[in-house]
Amino acid sequence: MAGGSHSQGVEEKTASRGQSEVNKRLKYISLAVLVVQNASLILSIRYVRTLPGDRFFTTSAVVMAEVLKVLTCLLIILLQKRLNVKETVLLLLDSIVFQYKDTLKLAVPSLIYTLQNNLQYIAISNLPAATFQVTYQLKILTTALFSVLMLRKSLSRVQWISLVLLFAGVAIVQVQQEGNKEASVSDSSSQNYMVGLVAVVISCLSSGFAGVYFEKILKGSSASVWIRNVQLGIFGTVLGLLGMWWNDGAAIAERGFLFGYTDMVWCVIFNQAFGGLLVAMVVKYADNILKGFATSFSIIVSTVTSIYLFGFHVDLLFTAGAGLVIGAVYMYSLPKAPGGGSSSPSSSSASSASSASQRKDGDVEPFLPKTQGGDASPPPAIHITD
Protein backbone atom coordinates (compact mmCIF):
# COMPACT_ATOMS: atom_id res chain seq x y z
CA MET A 1 0.00 0.00 0.00
CA ALA A 2 2.81 2.34 1.02
CA GLY A 3 4.76 1.34 -2.07
CA GLY A 4 1.80 2.18 -4.30
CA SER A 5 1.38 5.57 -2.63
CA HIS A 6 5.09 6.34 -3.04
CA SER A 7 4.96 5.30 -6.71
CA GLN A 8 1.95 7.55 -7.32
CA GLY A 9 3.73 10.49 -5.67
CA VAL A 10 6.80 9.98 -7.89
CA GLU A 11 4.59 9.85 -10.99
CA GLU A 12 2.83 13.09 -10.00
CA LYS A 13 6.16 14.86 -9.43
CA THR A 14 7.46 13.60 -12.78
CA ALA A 15 4.29 14.74 -14.55
CA SER A 16 4.46 18.14 -12.81
CA ARG A 17 8.11 18.55 -13.78
CA GLY A 18 7.29 17.55 -17.36
CA GLN A 19 4.43 20.07 -17.54
CA SER A 20 6.70 22.77 -16.14
CA GLU A 21 9.28 22.06 -18.84
CA VAL A 22 6.59 22.21 -21.54
CA ASN A 23 5.29 25.55 -20.21
CA LYS A 24 8.83 26.94 -20.07
CA ARG A 25 9.44 25.86 -23.66
CA LEU A 26 6.14 27.39 -24.76
CA LYS A 27 7.09 30.68 -23.07
CA TYR A 28 10.27 30.88 -25.12
CA ILE A 29 8.36 29.97 -28.28
CA SER A 30 5.81 32.69 -27.40
CA LEU A 31 8.60 35.21 -26.96
CA ALA A 32 10.10 34.33 -30.35
CA VAL A 33 6.70 34.56 -32.08
CA LEU A 34 5.88 37.91 -30.46
CA VAL A 35 9.26 39.39 -31.40
CA VAL A 36 9.13 38.17 -35.00
CA GLN A 37 5.53 39.28 -35.46
CA ASN A 38 6.10 42.71 -33.89
CA ALA A 39 9.19 43.46 -35.97
CA SER A 40 8.39 41.72 -39.26
CA LEU A 41 5.18 43.59 -40.06
CA ILE A 42 6.73 47.03 -39.65
CA LEU A 43 9.88 46.10 -41.57
CA SER A 44 7.95 44.43 -44.38
CA ILE A 45 5.55 47.37 -44.79
CA ARG A 46 8.50 49.76 -44.85
CA TYR A 47 10.21 47.56 -47.43
CA VAL A 48 7.26 47.27 -49.84
CA ARG A 49 6.46 50.98 -49.53
CA THR A 50 10.00 52.06 -50.45
CA LEU A 51 10.49 49.71 -53.41
CA PRO A 52 10.64 51.36 -56.86
CA GLY A 53 7.86 50.67 -59.34
CA ASP A 54 4.08 50.47 -59.06
CA ARG A 55 2.76 50.93 -55.53
CA PHE A 56 -0.26 49.01 -54.30
CA PHE A 57 -3.23 50.84 -52.80
CA THR A 58 -2.90 50.71 -49.02
CA THR A 59 -6.68 51.14 -48.64
CA SER A 60 -7.26 47.94 -50.61
CA ALA A 61 -4.67 46.11 -48.48
CA VAL A 62 -6.56 47.13 -45.31
CA VAL A 63 -9.82 45.78 -46.77
CA MET A 64 -8.19 42.54 -47.93
CA ALA A 65 -6.72 41.91 -44.47
CA GLU A 66 -10.15 42.43 -42.88
CA VAL A 67 -11.80 40.01 -45.32
CA LEU A 68 -9.17 37.32 -44.66
CA LYS A 69 -9.55 37.78 -40.92
CA VAL A 70 -13.35 37.43 -41.06
CA LEU A 71 -13.10 34.30 -43.23
CA THR A 72 -10.58 32.77 -40.83
CA CYS A 73 -12.77 33.45 -37.79
CA LEU A 74 -15.81 32.01 -39.59
CA LEU A 75 -13.83 28.87 -40.39
CA ILE A 76 -12.77 28.53 -36.74
CA ILE A 77 -16.40 28.92 -35.58
CA LEU A 78 -17.45 26.26 -38.11
CA LEU A 79 -14.76 23.90 -36.80
CA GLN A 80 -15.90 24.54 -33.23
CA LYS A 81 -19.41 23.50 -34.31
CA ARG A 82 -17.89 20.32 -35.83
CA LEU A 83 -18.64 21.45 -39.40
CA ASN A 84 -22.35 21.78 -38.63
CA VAL A 85 -23.32 24.55 -41.06
CA LYS A 86 -26.86 24.96 -39.68
CA GLU A 87 -25.66 25.48 -36.08
CA THR A 88 -22.98 27.90 -37.27
CA VAL A 89 -25.45 29.99 -39.29
CA LEU A 90 -27.94 30.08 -36.39
CA LEU A 91 -25.19 31.18 -33.99
CA LEU A 92 -24.08 33.95 -36.35
CA LEU A 93 -27.66 35.13 -36.92
CA ASP A 94 -28.34 35.24 -33.19
CA SER A 95 -25.05 36.96 -32.28
CA ILE A 96 -24.83 39.44 -35.14
CA VAL A 97 -28.38 40.08 -36.44
CA PHE A 98 -30.83 39.38 -33.60
CA GLN A 99 -28.56 40.97 -30.99
CA TYR A 100 -27.98 43.92 -33.28
CA LYS A 101 -27.65 46.42 -30.42
CA ASP A 102 -24.67 44.49 -29.13
CA THR A 103 -23.20 44.37 -32.64
CA LEU A 104 -23.67 48.11 -33.19
CA LYS A 105 -21.58 48.84 -30.10
CA LEU A 106 -18.55 47.68 -32.08
CA ALA A 107 -19.06 50.22 -34.86
CA VAL A 108 -17.08 52.94 -33.05
CA PRO A 109 -13.94 50.90 -32.24
CA SER A 110 -14.08 49.34 -35.70
CA LEU A 111 -14.15 52.80 -37.32
CA ILE A 112 -11.17 53.87 -35.21
CA TYR A 113 -9.26 50.66 -35.95
CA THR A 114 -9.85 51.08 -39.70
CA LEU A 115 -8.57 54.66 -39.52
CA GLN A 116 -5.62 53.45 -37.46
CA ASN A 117 -4.66 50.76 -39.99
CA ASN A 118 -4.59 53.31 -42.81
CA LEU A 119 -2.60 55.76 -40.68
CA GLN A 120 -0.02 53.07 -39.93
CA TYR A 121 0.65 52.62 -43.64
CA ILE A 122 1.08 56.39 -44.01
CA ALA A 123 3.37 56.57 -40.97
CA ILE A 124 5.59 53.63 -41.94
CA SER A 125 5.79 54.91 -45.53
CA ASN A 126 7.20 58.22 -44.28
CA LEU A 127 9.23 57.22 -41.21
CA PRO A 128 12.19 54.88 -40.78
CA ALA A 129 11.04 51.53 -39.34
CA ALA A 130 13.05 51.97 -36.13
CA THR A 131 11.73 55.50 -35.56
CA PHE A 132 8.16 54.33 -36.10
CA GLN A 133 8.66 51.38 -33.74
CA VAL A 134 9.99 53.62 -30.97
CA THR A 135 7.45 56.42 -31.45
CA TYR A 136 4.54 54.01 -31.70
CA GLN A 137 5.12 52.94 -28.09
CA LEU A 138 3.36 56.19 -27.15
CA LYS A 139 0.19 54.08 -27.41
CA ILE A 140 1.10 52.74 -23.96
CA LEU A 141 0.92 56.30 -22.64
CA THR A 142 -2.39 57.08 -24.39
CA THR A 143 -3.95 53.76 -23.28
CA ALA A 144 -2.91 54.42 -19.68
CA LEU A 145 -4.28 57.97 -19.70
CA PHE A 146 -7.61 56.93 -21.25
CA SER A 147 -7.85 54.08 -18.71
CA VAL A 148 -7.47 56.58 -15.88
CA LEU A 149 -9.97 59.04 -17.39
CA MET A 150 -12.62 56.63 -18.71
CA LEU A 151 -12.34 53.57 -16.46
CA ARG A 152 -11.15 55.33 -13.28
CA LYS A 153 -8.20 52.98 -13.05
CA SER A 154 -5.18 53.89 -10.98
CA LEU A 155 -1.55 53.29 -11.90
CA SER A 156 1.29 52.33 -9.62
CA ARG A 157 4.16 54.75 -8.96
CA VAL A 158 6.48 52.62 -11.12
CA GLN A 159 4.01 52.81 -14.00
CA TRP A 160 3.75 56.61 -13.77
CA ILE A 161 7.55 56.86 -13.75
CA SER A 162 7.73 54.52 -16.75
CA LEU A 163 5.25 56.72 -18.67
CA VAL A 164 7.39 59.80 -18.02
CA LEU A 165 10.48 57.91 -19.20
CA LEU A 166 8.57 56.70 -22.25
CA PHE A 167 7.57 60.22 -23.24
CA ALA A 168 11.13 61.48 -22.65
CA GLY A 169 12.59 58.66 -24.76
CA VAL A 170 10.25 59.33 -27.69
CA ALA A 171 10.95 63.08 -27.44
CA ILE A 172 14.71 62.45 -27.60
CA VAL A 173 14.30 60.25 -30.68
CA GLN A 174 12.22 62.96 -32.38
CA VAL A 175 14.85 65.61 -31.57
CA GLN A 176 17.52 63.33 -33.06
CA GLN A 177 15.44 62.73 -36.20
CA GLU A 178 14.64 66.44 -36.58
CA GLY A 179 18.33 67.24 -36.48
CA ASN A 180 19.19 64.45 -38.91
CA LYS A 181 16.40 64.42 -41.46
CA GLU A 182 18.70 63.49 -44.33
CA ALA A 183 19.58 60.23 -42.59
CA SER A 184 16.03 59.49 -41.50
CA VAL A 185 14.39 60.11 -44.85
CA SER A 186 16.55 59.12 -47.76
CA ASP A 187 14.15 60.22 -50.51
CA SER A 188 12.54 63.51 -49.54
CA SER A 189 10.66 63.68 -52.85
CA SER A 190 8.42 60.72 -51.93
CA GLN A 191 8.58 60.77 -48.12
CA ASN A 192 7.48 63.45 -45.69
CA TYR A 193 8.75 63.09 -42.13
CA MET A 194 6.16 65.46 -40.62
CA VAL A 195 3.27 63.61 -42.31
CA GLY A 196 4.60 60.34 -40.89
CA LEU A 197 4.97 61.82 -37.41
CA VAL A 198 1.44 63.26 -37.36
CA ALA A 199 0.08 59.92 -38.62
CA VAL A 200 1.81 57.90 -35.89
CA VAL A 201 0.72 60.31 -33.13
CA ILE A 202 -2.94 60.19 -34.26
CA SER A 203 -2.61 56.41 -34.53
CA CYS A 204 -1.37 56.23 -30.93
CA LEU A 205 -4.24 58.39 -29.70
CA SER A 206 -6.82 56.32 -31.58
CA SER A 207 -5.23 53.08 -30.36
CA GLY A 208 -5.45 54.19 -26.73
CA PHE A 209 -9.02 55.42 -26.98
CA ALA A 210 -10.30 52.43 -29.00
CA GLY A 211 -8.71 49.89 -26.67
CA VAL A 212 -10.20 51.46 -23.53
CA TYR A 213 -13.59 52.11 -25.14
CA PHE A 214 -13.62 48.50 -26.32
CA GLU A 215 -12.87 47.28 -22.80
CA LYS A 216 -15.63 49.46 -21.38
CA ILE A 217 -18.40 48.27 -23.70
CA LEU A 218 -17.40 44.61 -23.47
CA LYS A 219 -17.43 44.30 -19.68
CA GLY A 220 -19.86 41.57 -18.74
CA SER A 221 -20.11 40.30 -22.31
CA SER A 222 -20.06 36.55 -22.85
CA ALA A 223 -19.60 36.54 -26.63
CA SER A 224 -16.71 34.42 -27.87
CA VAL A 225 -13.50 35.85 -29.25
CA TRP A 226 -14.27 34.67 -32.78
CA ILE A 227 -17.80 36.13 -32.84
CA ARG A 228 -16.45 39.49 -31.66
CA ASN A 229 -13.84 39.50 -34.39
CA VAL A 230 -16.40 38.60 -37.04
CA GLN A 231 -18.50 41.57 -35.86
CA LEU A 232 -15.50 43.88 -35.92
CA GLY A 233 -14.34 42.49 -39.25
CA ILE A 234 -17.72 43.12 -40.90
CA PHE A 235 -17.70 46.74 -39.81
CA GLY A 236 -14.01 47.02 -40.68
CA THR A 237 -14.61 45.70 -44.21
CA VAL A 238 -17.55 48.04 -44.87
CA LEU A 239 -15.74 51.09 -43.45
CA GLY A 240 -12.54 50.10 -45.25
CA LEU A 241 -14.42 49.91 -48.56
CA LEU A 242 -15.90 53.37 -47.95
CA GLY A 243 -12.44 54.74 -47.19
CA MET A 244 -11.04 53.05 -50.29
CA TRP A 245 -13.79 54.50 -52.47
CA TRP A 246 -13.30 57.98 -50.98
CA ASN A 247 -9.51 58.02 -51.25
CA ASP A 248 -8.64 55.78 -54.21
CA GLY A 249 -11.98 55.05 -55.90
CA ALA A 250 -11.16 56.48 -59.33
CA ALA A 251 -7.64 55.03 -59.43
CA ILE A 252 -8.81 51.55 -58.35
CA ALA A 253 -11.64 51.63 -60.93
CA GLU A 254 -9.01 52.35 -63.58
CA ARG A 255 -6.19 50.03 -62.44
CA GLY A 256 -7.95 47.33 -60.42
CA PHE A 257 -8.28 46.31 -56.75
CA LEU A 258 -5.11 44.19 -56.81
CA PHE A 259 -2.96 46.70 -58.70
CA GLY A 260 0.67 46.60 -57.52
CA TYR A 261 0.23 43.42 -55.48
CA THR A 262 3.41 41.34 -55.38
CA ASP A 263 4.36 38.27 -53.36
CA MET A 264 5.84 40.57 -50.72
CA VAL A 265 2.65 42.64 -50.53
CA TRP A 266 0.63 39.45 -50.01
CA CYS A 267 3.04 38.51 -47.20
CA VAL A 268 2.31 41.86 -45.51
CA ILE A 269 -1.45 41.35 -45.84
CA PHE A 270 -1.30 37.80 -44.50
CA ASN A 271 0.86 39.04 -41.61
CA GLN A 272 -1.78 41.64 -40.82
CA ALA A 273 -4.69 39.23 -41.10
CA PHE A 274 -3.22 36.23 -39.29
CA GLY A 275 -0.57 37.84 -37.13
CA GLY A 276 -3.11 38.89 -34.52
CA LEU A 277 -4.70 35.44 -34.50
CA LEU A 278 -1.30 33.84 -34.04
CA VAL A 279 -0.38 36.20 -31.20
CA ALA A 280 -3.76 35.48 -29.57
CA MET A 281 -2.76 31.85 -29.37
CA VAL A 282 0.72 32.39 -27.93
CA VAL A 283 -0.31 35.13 -25.48
CA LYS A 284 -1.78 32.35 -23.34
CA TYR A 285 1.76 31.39 -22.40
CA ALA A 286 3.23 34.90 -22.29
CA ASP A 287 2.79 36.96 -19.12
CA ASN A 288 2.97 40.77 -19.10
CA ILE A 289 6.70 40.82 -18.40
CA LEU A 290 7.37 38.53 -21.35
CA LYS A 291 5.19 40.70 -23.61
CA GLY A 292 7.03 43.81 -22.46
CA PHE A 293 10.36 42.12 -23.10
CA ALA A 294 9.18 41.00 -26.55
CA THR A 295 8.17 44.56 -27.46
CA SER A 296 11.52 45.91 -26.25
CA PHE A 297 13.47 43.26 -28.11
CA SER A 298 11.48 43.86 -31.30
CA ILE A 299 12.57 47.54 -31.20
CA ILE A 300 16.18 46.38 -31.15
CA VAL A 301 15.53 43.92 -34.00
CA SER A 302 13.83 46.64 -36.08
CA THR A 303 16.69 49.07 -35.48
CA VAL A 304 19.45 46.59 -36.34
CA THR A 305 17.61 45.35 -39.42
CA SER A 306 16.94 48.92 -40.57
CA ILE A 307 20.67 49.64 -40.49
CA TYR A 308 21.35 46.86 -42.97
CA LEU A 309 18.21 47.07 -45.12
CA PHE A 310 17.57 50.82 -45.30
CA GLY A 311 20.90 52.38 -44.29
CA PHE A 312 19.36 53.78 -41.10
CA HIS A 313 21.77 55.91 -39.07
CA VAL A 314 22.01 55.27 -35.32
CA ASP A 315 23.83 57.80 -33.13
CA LEU A 316 24.20 58.33 -29.40
CA LEU A 317 21.03 60.44 -29.11
CA PHE A 318 18.84 57.82 -30.83
CA THR A 319 20.39 55.07 -28.72
CA ALA A 320 19.65 57.02 -25.52
CA GLY A 321 16.04 57.72 -26.53
CA ALA A 322 15.39 54.15 -27.68
CA GLY A 323 17.01 52.85 -24.49
CA LEU A 324 14.64 54.94 -22.36
CA VAL A 325 11.64 53.66 -24.32
CA ILE A 326 12.77 50.02 -24.01
CA GLY A 327 13.30 50.44 -20.26
CA ALA A 328 9.93 52.20 -19.85
CA VAL A 329 8.07 49.46 -21.75
CA TYR A 330 9.63 46.82 -19.52
CA MET A 331 8.93 48.80 -16.33
CA TYR A 332 5.30 49.39 -17.28
CA SER A 333 4.75 45.65 -17.77
CA LEU A 334 6.05 44.74 -14.31
CA PRO A 335 3.37 43.43 -11.92
CA LYS A 336 2.01 45.87 -9.34
CA ALA A 337 3.00 45.52 -5.71
CA PRO A 338 0.31 43.75 -3.62
CA GLY A 339 -2.36 46.23 -2.58
CA GLY A 340 -0.79 49.08 -4.52
CA GLY A 341 -2.27 50.98 -7.40
CA SER A 342 -5.34 48.82 -7.86
CA SER A 343 -8.62 49.88 -9.36
CA SER A 344 -11.74 50.54 -7.36
CA PRO A 345 -13.52 47.43 -6.02
CA SER A 346 -16.46 47.82 -8.37
CA SER A 347 -14.16 48.16 -11.35
CA SER A 348 -12.14 45.15 -10.23
CA SER A 349 -15.20 42.97 -9.74
CA ALA A 350 -16.64 43.97 -13.10
CA SER A 351 -13.32 43.22 -14.76
CA SER A 352 -13.14 39.85 -13.00
CA ALA A 353 -16.67 38.98 -14.07
CA SER A 354 -15.91 39.94 -17.64
CA SER A 355 -12.69 37.96 -17.58
CA ALA A 356 -14.43 34.91 -16.15
CA SER A 357 -17.24 35.03 -18.68
CA GLN A 358 -14.86 35.41 -21.60
CA ARG A 359 -12.72 32.49 -20.49
CA LYS A 360 -15.63 30.15 -19.91
CA ASP A 361 -14.98 28.35 -23.20
CA GLY A 362 -11.25 28.26 -22.75
CA ASP A 363 -10.60 31.53 -24.61
CA VAL A 364 -7.79 33.61 -23.19
CA GLU A 365 -6.84 37.21 -23.95
CA PRO A 366 -9.61 37.21 -26.55
CA PHE A 367 -8.75 40.37 -28.42
CA LEU A 368 -5.45 41.73 -29.62
CA PRO A 369 -4.79 45.33 -30.42
CA LYS A 370 -5.58 46.28 -33.92
CA THR A 371 -2.06 47.36 -34.39
CA GLN A 372 0.81 45.04 -34.95
CA GLY A 373 3.64 47.12 -33.67
CA GLY A 374 3.71 45.26 -30.37
CA ASP A 375 1.73 46.25 -27.33
CA ALA A 376 3.16 46.01 -23.86
CA SER A 377 0.09 47.51 -22.25
CA PRO A 378 -2.26 44.64 -21.44
CA PRO A 379 -5.88 45.82 -21.70
CA PRO A 380 -8.28 43.05 -20.63
CA ALA A 381 -10.28 43.26 -23.83
CA ILE A 382 -8.06 43.41 -26.84
CA HIS A 383 -8.89 43.08 -30.49
CA ILE A 384 -7.22 40.69 -32.92
CA THR A 385 -5.70 42.96 -35.41
CA ASP A 386 -4.66 43.27 -38.81
UniProtKB/TrEMBL annotation:
Location of the region described as Disordered in the Swiss-Prot/TrEMBL record: 338-386
Primary site of residence: Golgi
A Pfam family recorded for this sequence: Nuc_sug_transp
One term under GO cellular component: Golgi membrane
Gene that encodes it: SLC35A2
TM annotation in the entry: 26-45, 57-79, 158-175, 195-214, 226-246, 258-283, 290-310, 316-334
Membrane topology field: Multi-pass membrane protein
Low complexity composition-biased segments: 343-357
Record localization: Golgi apparatus membrane
Keywords, sorted A to Z: Golgi apparatus, Membrane, Sugar transport, Transmembrane, Transmembrane helix, Transport
UniProt keyword Cytoplasm, yes or no: no
Keyword Membrane: yes
Biased composition (Pro residues): 377-386
Superkingdom as given in the UniProt entry: Eukaryota
Protein name: Solute carrier family 35 member 2
Molecular function terms from GO: pyrimidine nucleotide-sugar transmembrane transporter activity
Organism name: Anabas testudineus
Family of this protein: Belongs to the nucleotide-sugar transporter family. SLC35A subfamily.
